[in-house]
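Exercise 7.
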Amino acid sequence: MQNIKNIIFDYGNVIFMLDFLKSRQAWADLGIDNADTFYGHQVQDEIFTKFERGDVNADEFRDRIRQVLNKPDLTDDQINHAWNSLLVGVPAGNHELLLSLKPKYRTFLLSNINAIHYDYIMNYLKTDFGFDGNDHLFEKTYYSHLTGKRKPDAGIFEMVLNENNLTPAETLFIDDSPQHIATAQKLGIQTYLMTAPDNIQMYFKDPV
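Solution. The predicted structure, written as tokens, is:
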């Protein structure tokens, strides 16, 4: 952590846990026969990319799912349930860690997300923790569907750097996706690839 003044956190599988196996099963239950490539950690149907950039809204996303499945009678709730099955929750201690880091570093959240997951998570944070979002945990939050940009595109990293006058060499980016880490590295940002069973509480107990 020498020379680090700023930390940019990914959200999924860094702060908020995800379960891609559960997601794969949920899509398979709806009738997706190629669930691994339809939506996976590194490979996904184009509709997910568009949804994360905010290029399509929730209704358009659900219509695409009905089209792919050739099941026009699928309800919004059925599709939302399958899509939200990916979302597990925030492990005990993660929020407290983020609050403890905020006085020591300039901290930011940079998440590829979409309108359905965003609404689910905002409700979860309010219901389970009494939080009105994540804003109090960071200096600033960046959600892909609200910015029109998403990782691994360089533009969203440049947005965070430029809007906050961050020096790349003094900035650490923590993410669980190799393709996102690769872009950050090309921009001169220091990086850490989070891979299970590692977690942010272990990392900041003894950062490497």
